[in-house]
Design brief:
By secondary structure, the protein is an alpha+beta fold. 25% of the residues lie in helices and 39% in strands. The protein has helices at 2-18, 26-35, 139-149, and strands spanning 40-49, 68-80, 83-96, 98-99, 102-103, 109-118, 121-126, 134-136.
Length: 155
Amino acid sequence: MLRVAFTALILASSAQAQSCREGPTLSDSFRFAAGSERAYVLAAGIVDRLGGQQTTARTDLRGLPQPFVAKARFTGVRAGAGGLNQRFNKIITVEVSCAGLRCGAVPQGGFIAFLERRGDTHVLRSGPCPDYALHRDSPAARAEVRACLAGQCPR
């Protein structure tokens, strides 16, 4: 009986994870971070996975993927008083979460990210579905960031 309930729970979680909706817009993410009690750094640039770091989830004895933490380098710019104009070159912590059978991964490439500040550490959360923390970098995304920094986020 317990095995049937567990299997049903896994299948429900898997179905939920596979039905990711479109994530929030960059403006939504900006408003979320601005209204949060946590401190965020808005950065744009390249995320490079560090060699020797786990980049995708491993499974446990039951075959279920497990969340993990890895390090990556973020190189680019961060938001300052005058916009996206302060150099940013840091090793960041990537917290990868899972939902059912799907997990996020350590990203690679050009992104605009909302990195949570925890002391001297910058943390990027990566889940199986798009969320507020990570957006693909593009000229249009940079224009949206500039508008938000000027207090004119699109709705």
